Each structure stands twice: as C-alpha cells, then as structure tokens.
Amino acid sequence: MTLFTRIAFCLFLFCVTQPVMAAPPATGDVMPELILPVPFDPAGQEMLGVQGKTTFTLADLGADLIFIEVIGVYCPQCVKQSPGFKTLFNRLNRGKLKGRVAMFGLAAGGTDAEVRQLLGTGQYLFPVLSDPDYVLHKVLGEPLTPYTIVCRPDGSVVYDHLGVVQDIDALYQHIKTLLD
C-alpha cells in the first residue's frame, strides 16, 4: 500500500466517521469538523497557506473568516455566479482586508481532473478542492449548489446563501462589517 493510498484511506475513514449534518450549515450553526484535502495546485496551497500538508482544518487557515463556496463542476448556476465571486475575491485580497478572509471552493463530486480543467478556464481565482466521492458534501448536509458559507475559524457560521448571490456589493459590505 503506497503512502498516498494510506493517507487517502485514513482521510476517507475519518470523513466517514464524522457526523453528517441533517441540513446544510446555516447562520448561527456551528460547522461540523472538516478535515479538508489540500489543493493539488501549488498556487492554491500557497493562497491557503497549507503547503507541505496533506489535509487541513478551518482553524489551520489563520484567517479571521473562511469563505466556502460549495459548487458543482457542471453546475450552470455556479458558472453564472463565478464572475461576481472573482470580483469579490479581488476586493477581499487588497488593502486592509488582505489575508483576513480565506476563500475556497469545494467541488462536490469533482475529481482532481475535473477541478484542474475548471481552474484552467479562469472561472475561479480562488482554490477549489476536489470532493470526488461527495464525502465532505455529505458531512455538510448535502447542500444544493451553489451554496455559500462564511464562518469563523471556530466553525461558527455567520452567513449562508443558497443559489446565486445577486448583490456582490452587499455581501462585500457584510463581510467588512463582520471583520470590524
């Protein structure tokens, strides 16, 4: 058994033994403990500050807020939302906010190859994690996509939204308020 196979098997066992939420996390809830796979691409690893690791937790990110976008690699609504989130990502990564919000996507059902292809389109500027067997998606209560979650490193959910976020400026202002 190779080292990669052992790590993947341990990760699978850990995720399978995690409690599954009955419904997706909503504002006021606490996120289930997530053991997340490190992005396969070095740029994504660097953005999240998880180089040299194989897995990470929300608390490992060292940010004041964590922005998680649950997507489907073939989801047309996710494609519709991506330009606004590219703008949001750029706004959150400059000035006083730079480094305070860790932002990543979770590709429910997405393999590394599918995520690599998706990132190659330039549709997402932030890292996207593969979840090929829907393990993390199940732990999160199997939300429809796109599903946006903003939480603190301790897992307390401060924002959630199902579907396309229509007002990116309002979301940006809300995040700024949460950081004050």
TrEMBL record:
The name of this protein is: Redoxin
Q: Where is the signal peptide?
A: 1-22
Q: What molecular function does GO assign, one term?
A: oxidoreductase activity
- Xref: CDD domains: TlpA_like_family
Keywords (alphabetical) are:
Signal
Q: Which residues form the Thioredoxin domain?
A: 25-180
Entry-linked SUPFAM superfamilies: Thioredoxin-like
Source organism: Desulfomicrobium apsheronum
Keyword Signal among UniProt keywords: yes
* Bilayer-spanning residue ranges: none
Q: Does the keyword Signal apply?
A: yes
Q: What would be one Pfam family of this protein?
A: Redoxin
Gene3D superfamilies annotated for this entry?
Glutaredoxin (3.40.30.10)
| Top-level taxon of the source organism | Bacteria
